[in-house]
Write a structure and sequence with these properties.
Elements: H1 2-15, H2 23-30, H3 33-47, H4 51-60, H5 65-79, H6 86-95, E1 103-108, E2 111-116, H7 120-145, H8 151-154, H9 159-172, H10 178-190, H11 200-210, H12 213-221, H13 226-238, H14 241-250, H15 257-265, H16 272-281, H17 288-297, H18 301-310, H19 316-323
Antiparallel strand pairs: 1-2
Length: 325
C-alpha cells in the first residue's frame, strides 16, 4: 500500500496537468520572470557542477514550468562556448532520457501532429554531438601537429564516418600551417604508384590550400565531378600564372578539356603559354572547332584570322567558317 502511494505521488509530481499547450502559453512560460529567475540559479548550479542540487531544484519546479526551465537551461548552455566537464556532459546526457510531457499540436494537410512544447532532449542531443565534434577536431589537430596522423586511416570506416572526418579536416585546413599541410599531402604525392586517393571533395580542398602541383596533378587524374569542376572554376577566377598552368594541365582530362579550353579563351590579356596551348588544340580534329568558336565568342576573331593565314598546323578547313561569323 505504501509502495502504491509512493508511485502515485511520484507520478503526480512528474506529470500532473501534463497535456497540450498553445503557442501563446508556451511563449509566456519561456518569458516568465519567475522561470528566468530560476534559470539563473539553475545555470549557476550547473557551472558549479552541483548536479545533485541542480536536479533537486529542477524537480521542485511545477510542470510545465519545469520543462521550460530544462529547455532554457540547455539552450543557454548551447549558446555558450567553453570547455565542459564530464559531470556537465553527464547531466546533459541524462536529459535525453526524460520524456517531455507537454506538447504543441500542429495541423497540416488535414492531419494533426504533436511535438514537444519544450524539446530539451533534442537540445541535449545537439550539445552532445557538438562536443563530440569538438573533441574529434582537437584530437585530429593534435595528431597532425605531432606528425602522428595517417590520412588513409582517418578516412576509413562507414560512409557517414568518412564524410564526417572529411568535413572536420576540410574546415580546419586554413588553421594548419604550411608545414602541416605539407605533412598531410606528402604521402599522396610521394607514392610512385597511386593505390588510394581521398574523395575529389577533399582532394580539391587540399589542392587549393596547398597550391601543390603534385596534388593538382592527382586531382586532374580523377573522374570529374562537381568538386573538380568547382575547383577549375575557382582557378579561372584567380588568373595568376600557377592557376593558368593548372587549367592547362586539367585539359589533359577528357572530362575537363572542353571547360578548360573555354576558360582559357576568356583570359585577357592572353599569356603566350595559353596561346600555344590553344593553337595545339586547333591542330586537333576533336578540339579545333570548340576552340575556334570560343575564341570568336571572346573577341579573338582577328587573332584567329591571322592564324588561318599564317599557321599551317591548325585545322583551317574546320575553323575557317567561324571567322566569317
Amino acid at each position: 500500500m505504501l509502495l502504491l502511494l509512493f508511485v502515485l505521488l511520484w507520478t503526480n509530481l512528474q506529470y500532473v496537468s501534463a497535456g497540450e499547450l498553445d503557442e501563446l502559453s508556451r511563449e509566456q512560460l519561456l518569458q516568465s520572470s519567475q522561470i528566468l529567475s530560476q534559470l539563473n540559479e539553475l545555470h549557476q548550479l550547473l557551472l558549479s557542477e552541483k548536479i545533485d542540487e541542480l536536479n533537486f531544484s529542477l524537480q521542485r519546479i511545477s510542470l510545465p514550468g519545469q520543462e521550460a526551465a530544462r529547455y532554457l537551461l540547455l539552450k543557454r548552455l548551447e549558446q555558450e562556448h567553453f570547455s565542459v566537464s564530464l559531470k556537465i556532459k553527464q547531466f546533459v546526457r541524462a536529459q535525453q532520457s526524460i520524456k517531455p510531457a507537454w506538447y504543441l499540436s500542429e495541423r497540416k494537410d488535414g492531419y494533426t501532429f504533436t511535438v514537444p512544447a519544450f524539446d530539451f532532449p533534442a537540445v541535449s542531443g545537439r550539445l552532445l554531438r557538438t562536443w563530440k565534434h569538438q573533441q574529434n577536431t582537437v584530437s585530429m589537430l593534435q595528431r597532425i601537429r605531432q606528425h602522428n596522423f595517417e590520412l588513409r586511416s582517418w578516412l576509413s570506416g562507414d560512409e557517414d564516418l568518412v564524410r564526417l572526418h572529411e568535413s572536420l579536416l576540410i574546415q580546419e585546413l586554413e588553421r594548419l600551417t604550411d608545414d602541416e599541410i605539407l605533412y598531410l599531402t606528402h604521402p599522396l604525392v610521394s607514392e610512385p604508384v597511386t593505390s588510394w586517393l581521398p574523395s575529389t571533395r577533399l582532394m580539391s580542398a587540399l589542392a587549393r590550400r596547398s597550391k601543390n602541383a603534385g596534388v593538382y596533378k592527382l586531382l586532374w587524374l580523377m573522374k570529374p565531378d562537381g568538386f573538380t569542376i568547382s575547383e577549375l572554376n575557382y582557378l579561372s577566377v584567380q588568373q595568376d600564372a600557377f592557376a593558368v598552368g593548372q587549367i592547362i594541365k586539367a585539359a589533359n582530362n577528357p572530362g575537363l578539356k572542353l571547360l578548360a579550353i573555354k576558360q582559357l579563351t576568356r583570359l585577357k590579356p592572353m599569356p603566350d603559354n595559353v596561346k600555344h596551348f590553344l593553337i595545339r588544340q586547333m591542330s586537333r580534329s576533336d578540339t579545333a572547332e570548340v576552340t575556334a568558336r570560343s575564341l570568336v565568342k571572346e573577341g579573338y576573331g582577328y587573332w584567329l584570322q591571322q592564324l588561318i593565314q599564317d599557321n599551317k598546323t591548325i585545322k583551317r578547313h574546320l575553323i575557317k567558317r567561324f571567322v566569317d561569323l
